[in-house]
Specification:
This protein is mainly beta. The protein contains one helix and 20 strands. It has two domains: about 130 residues, Immunoglobulin-like, CATH 2.60.40.10; about 100 residues, Sandwich (Immunoglobulin-like), CATH 2.60.40.
């Protein structure tokens, strides 16, 4: 049985300012880890890359004007083997046609196990592993940059950790755009900074594909189980800046139940005292 554990690097790469009629070269690296038990036999295929819905589910089957590049790419060695603890660089060429449309182009260079045994009838479960390096390209010409930050979403009340913040961003242009997010977190009462830290500066970037809306979410961890924190999210996108800062109450369900039970007990006690007081007054009148 061939080894199915491998890594493909880089996970994504960009090719900017592609000129129609010219060719460009790139490469991916297939890594067979040191603890592999056998050579990794691979096969490479080209797929269109798009997204579905605001959660950006990958679409590797639908052809569009934005995925023509999947037919412009030629892989130098589409099949081969990589020994344990070794890696192999596989080159590819992008030949841009003269009539290539201006704007964004997207494809996935998919690497899968080329283990023939998985196709045998005796194998009841086909355990096919596949990884891909995504290609984000831009063809020279008239590009349209049209997008906006629709929502900068920081909650005011949560019942559990981690705290999730989000943003809804649209891109009505014909090329992908970069959105930059900067998150800050501090304790409301003490002012202690929770984010950024030495290991995490609270900044990250996301790609917004053309003709799409993307809801981006980020989880904030290492927070108190109960308390109030100050959360800020700044978004920089297509020349627009959106900044939101809120005091977020973290109140777990068990604490809410405890408070309700306490209030219920207090109310019950007050009612009993009132009733007892009325009974005592009634006895005194008799």
């Amino acid at each position: 049985m061939e080894n199915n554990t491998f890594t493909v690097l880089p996970m994504s790469q960009r090719f900017n300012n592609l000129v129609p009629g010219k060719s460009y070269t790139g490469s991916i690296t297939i890594v067979n880890p040191a603890d592999a038990t056998a050579d990794f036999s691979y096969k490479i295929s080209l797929m269109p890359y798009g997204v579905i819905g605001q959660d950006y589910t990958a679409d590797l089957t639908t052809d569009s004007t934005y995925t023509a590049i999947s037919k412009w790419i030629h892989i130098s060695e589409p099949t081969g083997k990589v020994k344990p603890n070794e890696s192999k660089e596989v080159e590819f060429t992008i030949s841009v046609p003269n009539d290539a449309p201006a704007g964004g182009q997207y494809a996935a260079i998919a690497v899968a196990s080329n283990d023939e045994s998985k196709n045998q009838e005796s194998v009841s479960v086909q355990n096919v592993f596949e990884l891909a390096s995504l290609i984000y390209a831009q063809v020279d010409g008239e590009t349209i940059h049209d997008g906006e930050i629709i929502k900068n979403d920081v909650p005011a009340f949560v019942t559990s950790n981690p705290v999730t913040i989000g943003a809804l961003i649209s891109n009505k242009g014909n090329v992908h755009e970069d959105a930059t997010f900067v998150i800050t977190v501090s304790d409301f009462f003490s002012g202690q900074v929770i984010l950024p830290t030495e290991d995490n500066n609270g900044e990250y970037n996301e790609i917004i594909m053309p003709d799409s809306e993307r809801y981006v979410q980020r989880e904030i961890s290492n927070l108190p189980a109960l308390g109030v924190i100050k959360v800020g999210q700044s978004i920089y996108y297509n020349g627009e800046v959106s900044q939101v800062e809120k005091n977020v109450i973290i109140c777990p369900i068990w604490f809410i139940i405890l408070v309700l039970l306490t209030i219920s007990a207090i109310i019950t006690t007050i009612v009993m005292i009132i009733k007892r007081h009325k009974r005592n007054k009634a006895r005194l009148k008799i």
